[in-house]
Design brief:
Elements (H helix, E strand, L loop, with lengths): L4 E5 L10 H10 L4 E4 L4 H4 L9 H12 L3 E5 L7 H4 L8 E2 L2 E2 L13 H18 L5 E5 L12 H14 L3 H8 L23 H27 L7 E3 L1 E2 L2 E2 L3 E3 L6 H4 L6 E4 L11 H13 L4 E5 L14 H11 L4 E4 L25 H20 L8 E4 L2 H9 L10 H14 L4 E4 L11 E4 L7 H12 L3 E5 L21 H4 L1 E2 L3 E2 L5 E4 L7 E3 L1 E5 L2 E2 L3 E7 L7 E8 L2 E6 L1 E2 L2 H14 L11 E7 L5 E7 L5 E4 L5 E3 L4 E3 L4 E4 L4 E6 L2
Parallel strand pairs: 1-2, 1-13, 2-3, 3-6, 6-7, 8-11, 11-12, 14-15, 14-16, 16-17, 17-26
Antiparallel strand pairs: 4-5, 9-10, 18-23, 19-22, 20-21, 20-24, 22-27, 24-25, 25-26, 28-29, 29-34, 30-33, 31-32, 31-34
Helix pairs in contact: 8-13, 11-12, 14-17
């Protein structure tokens, strides 16, 4: 692509009357240049078995060609027609809650041979019909694909085969998974029980890992089909989504997106987030960093909100701010779900760019301004290359482990809570970061590596963390890391396993805190806080105590330690505490790692990168309803959207929910 993509999902099938010409004209007025279509309309494309109707699809493609709009086609496999559900008793997924019922989307068993036969037919028929269309620039595989908890007979047979490939010796399998407990031992593969009834966390977690592999295999299968038809200059992507906490929140539990993305040309994602007074940019930053990490490159925003849910209607100026927030993280597109608000069904009040009356509104008019800016200045913002000195290591296996054995309490109870706790601290301090996963073998390109709650970890990953510090890296590792191996078998030695020398500490006991205060020592002298949710009673060996428990019984133990190891430094965090206390700790450690922090913090946020012309681009955001000022201390530049010079040392004031994009000139 040589320009930013700006557009929306469009559904001629959903319209109460014909207005495709009007919609295209309104999109062109907004300088939109792309629509996403087809991914949810199988029952329209194939109303009966083997009867195909591409009327709506052709209308949209004809209109796109007439108005010079790009098109991304989605394979329509994530929402099956009712006639298909009746073809076989095994098409709808059987889950731990029993057989699925037809009605909601994503209710099928993605391993079912009958489903796959019909899915292949619709994909091939669709691709054959559209393959010569000039307006199509890419293909989206399925839609927010997951495994949907499938645990039917066929899926469980595949799981046993998967286990057999890992364990030829049943005794070794039983030992590794601890199946002697409660007489769960499997003495013959033919006796393997229904996985839905297991009380064994290791086995349940392995089925989750296997289920994530089913998603990778399914998307790879679709990618191979599409590649048989697509042109060389057309891309394949997928709109990955994230763990949902009423908005996009963190690492997706049901998909190993790092593995699944390997079959694609460019990563795509759907990011939704709070707005109005709750807009912080943190979700855009964290989920965008995951998306950027999937292919170690730029990515597409295939869905984000325009008006969205009731509480998401943006304040004036926020739609533009949100869009540029995506671009500042490395996105090469902004696409809304969806163009128009629909008039029936579940998502009738998930509003698009246009409201139910289809008329111009403040959101649409702001999109017009945004589109004009993206058209004018997009060449300066496209393919932003980010070179970050900090990284966060995330793990699907650790996430699953903490689903099986969660933290106790209401706060910081999940893996993503632990990950966001640390990631959001870096964000508030204006430390940009990349996202790594355990398959990444080299951490040496980063001065600071943050590892949240790595509950399940292979020995090789722990060894690489040790080597990273020994060779001069700076590591922050948090509570419950190094606890179990990749099969959730708890390591039978001092915790954190494999990291006690590196971190210079150990512990063997932990508890839920009640009235446990924290007090700072050494570099954090004067810092206080309150331990929350989970505390580990850490004994320093060679480490220095940075935070200790201020408590009549736990006062002999450390909460946070710092240890010199080889040429590097390792910090271990043994509990949760307030954001302000965490920010003080992370700021201290980041400076030890040689990172230079801006003089300002959240709500002033700085994102930067290098554009294709080799010039530094700096985005400055004010995520607040109050004016915010700062000193511009970078080399002289041009404020792009205003085309005004900005001198080094000048004072800049950002309006509430305001931002500036400055291109360095030297």
């Amino acid at each position: 692509m040589d320009h930013l993509l700006f557009g929306a999902a469009y559904y001629d099938e959903y319209m109460p009357f014909d207005r495709i010409e009007t919609d295209m004209q309104m999109m062109k007025k907004a300088n939109m240049n792309v629509i996403r279509i087809a991914e949810s309309t199988w029952s329209t494309l194939e109303p009966q078995d083997g009867v195909f109707d591409f009327t709506h699809l052709d209308r949209m493609l004809d209109a796109a060609e007439k108005y010079d709009m790009h098109v991304i086609i989605g394979t329509p496999t994530y929402a099956i027609p009712s006639w298909l559900a009746k073809k076989s008793d095994t098409i709808l997924a059987v889950t731990k809650d029993g057989p699925s019922l037809y009605g909601h989307r994503q209710n099928m068993d993605i391993t079912d041979p009958t489903y796959l036969k019909y899915a292949e037919r619709i994909i091939r028929t669709l691709m054959e019909h559209i393959k010569d269309r000039s307006c199509i620039i890419g293909y989206q595989l399925d839609n927010e694909t997951k495994h949907y908890g499938t645990a039917g007979k066929h899926a469980q047979e595949l799981f046993v085969s998967y286990l057999k490939e890992q364990f030829s010796d049943l005794s070794a399998f039983n030992l590794e998974f601890g199946l002697d407990y409660w007489s769960n031992r499997v003495n013959d593969w033919s006796d393997f029980p229904d996985i839905r009834g297991t009380i064994n966390g290791s086995l349940a977690a392995e089925y989750e890992k296997f289920s994530r592999k089913l998603v990778t295999d399914f998307l790879t299968w679709q990618s191979d089909l599409v590649r048989e038809y697509k042109k060389e200059d057309q891309f394949i992507t997928q709109n990955f989504d994230f763990e949902w906490h009423d908005y996009s929140y963190g690492l997706q539990p049901d998909v190993n997106q790092f593995e699944a993305a390997k079959c694609m040309d460019i990563a795509g994602c759907d990011i939704y987030h709070p707005s109005q007074d709750d807009l912080t940019g943190a979700e855009i930053n964290f989920c965008g960093s995951i998306a950027r990490g999937l292919k170690k490159s730029n990515y597409l925003i295939l869905e984000t909100e325009a008006q969205g849910n009731l509480e998401w209607l943006p304040y004036p100026g926020q739609l533009r701010m949100q869009a540029y927030s995506h671009l500042s993280c490395g996105a090469d597109s902004v696409m809304y779900w969806h163009w128009h608000s629909i008039h029936n069904s579940l998502e009738s009040y998930w509003k698009g760019v246009l409201s139910h009356d289809f008329s111009e509104n403040p959101t649409y008019l702001e999109a017009c301004r945004l589109g004009a800016e993206m058209k004018t200045y997009g060449s300066h913002l496209l393919h932003l290359k980010k070179t970050n000195r900090a990284a966060i290591l995330v793990s699907n296996e650790a996430l699953t482990g903490l689903l099986m054995f969660p933290f106790k309490g209401r706060e910081n109870s999940s893996y993503n809570d632990a990950a966001r706790w640390l990631a959001d601290s870096l964000y508030r301090l204006n430390i940009e970061f990349d996202i790594l996963n355990p398959a990444d073998t080299d951490f040496s390109g980063y001065d600071l590596l943050v590892v949240p709650a790595l509950y399940a970890a292979e020995e090789s990953v722990l060894s690489r963390m040790n080597d990273y510090v020994r060779n001069g890296g700076h590591l922050i590792v948090s509570t419950r890391s190094g606890f179990s191996n990749e099969h959730l078998k708890i390591y039978p030695d001092m915790q954190p396993h494999g990291l006690t020398d590196c971190c210079g500490m150990h512990y063997s006991q932990f508890t839920a805190p009640k009235n446990v205060a924290l007090k700072g020592n050494g570099a954090l002298s004067g810092i206080t806080g309150t331990a929350r949710n989970w505390i580990e009673l850490v004994t320093p060996d060679t480490a220095e105590t940075l935070l200790s428990y201020d408590h009549p019984y736990w006062g002999a133990y450390s909460a946070v330690t710092c240890n010199h190891y080889g040429k590097g430094l390792a910090c271990y965090i043994g509990c949760f505490f307030e954001d302000g206390t965490l920010d003080a700790l992370v700021a201290f450690f980041a400076k030890e790692a040689g990172l230079s922090l801006p003089a300002f913090r959240f709500p002033l946020i700085l994102h930067e990168g290098t554009n294709e012309n080799g010039k530094k681009i700096r985005y400055f955001f004010n995520y607040s309803g109050r004016e915010a000022s700062f000193t511009y201390d970078a080399p002289d530049g041009i404020s792009l959207l205003e085309e005004k010079p900005v001198a080094q040392g000048s004072q800049i004031t950002l309006a509430p929910w305001g931002f500036k994009i400055i291109e360095q000139q030297a």
